[in-house]
Design brief:
seven-stranded mixed β-sheet; globular; about 250 residues; alpha/beta; two-stranded parallel sheet; Spore Coat Polysaccharide Biosynthesis Protein SpsA, Chain A
């Protein structure tokens, strides 16, 4: 890095495991968002590569991303590994199978400039719909509306991320929910709240529905709750998140 060059405003962190196929689609959308923002030097893109066996890391490097190599097979650790490399004032996190809205960085800037925002998320729209997917999404939206905690591009100030200790690496799943909950509590101490920046919704992948079926959500969540009660959360996490067919 040129010592005379100011640090970027945004660090966009992409956790990735064997994402050579879908990562280019996301990076194309990120390029469009950077172009719309009009200040390329203000945004750095970091791909946190989690021991991929395909060409994810090489592809990311060719596309001009910074690459953080993370060995620990825990998604919280992958997010934290990307954040450790970040130089931006604002940290943003997006899943590698998603796509970002062209106005993402403008919308986040506006939210944080209000002074009332501790962080938040953009929300998502789905790349395809069906009755089963719509019902699953609607059930998730109940909690989103009750808590203000959404998904998509999740963002916060780097200083707040570090104050909270980042994502909890003891959690195999729901680390994103736990982090936003902690961020929400921090905001309350400063009369700030989580913002849902829905004018810049990301596009969420439906590949879990492609793999497990459009009606799988309710069946699999019920199984997951039973496993959690029996202390078998690792089995559930491995089957659904950590051993995907890719």
């Amino acid at each position: 890095m040129n010592v005379d060059q100011p640090p970027p405003r945004f660090s966009l962190i992409i956790p990735a495991y064997n994402e050579e196929r879908l990562l280019p689609r996301l990076l194309d959308s990120v390029d469009a968002a950077i172009a719309a923002y009009g200040a390329p030097a203000a945004i750095e893109v970091i791909v946190a590569d989690n021991r991929s066996s395909d060409g994810t890391a090489q592809l990311a490097a060719r596309r001009g991303c910074r690459v953080a190599t993370v060995d620990k097979r825990v998604i919280a650790a992958v997010r934290n590994g990307g954040a450790a490399l970040a130089r931006g004032e604002i940290l943003c996190f997006i899943d590698a199978d998603s796509q970002v809205h062209a106005q993402t960085f403008h919308a986040i800037d506006a939210a944080l400039a209000s002074g009332r925002c501790v962080g938040g998320a953009t929300g998502v729209r789905l790349e395809r719909v069906s009755p089963g997917i719509v019902l699953a999404f609607a059930s998730m939206m109940i909690m989103v509306l009750l808590t203000g905690m959404d998904t998509g591009v999740v963002f916060c100030r780097k200083a707040d991320f570090e104050a909270l200790g980042g994502y909890d690496e003891q959690r195999l799943v729901a680390e994103d929910v736990a982090f936003l909950w902690a961020l929400r509590k921090l905001g309350k101490t400063r009369r700030q709240r989580l913002f849902r920046v829905t004018r810049a919704k990301a596009i969420a992948s439906t590949r879990k529905f492609d793999e497990f079926g459009d009606w799988h959500y309710f069946r699999l969540m019920a199984q997951g709750l039973r496993l959690l009660r029996k202390g078998g959360s690792s089995e559930f996490a491995d089957r659904y998140w950590y051993k995907p067919k890719r």
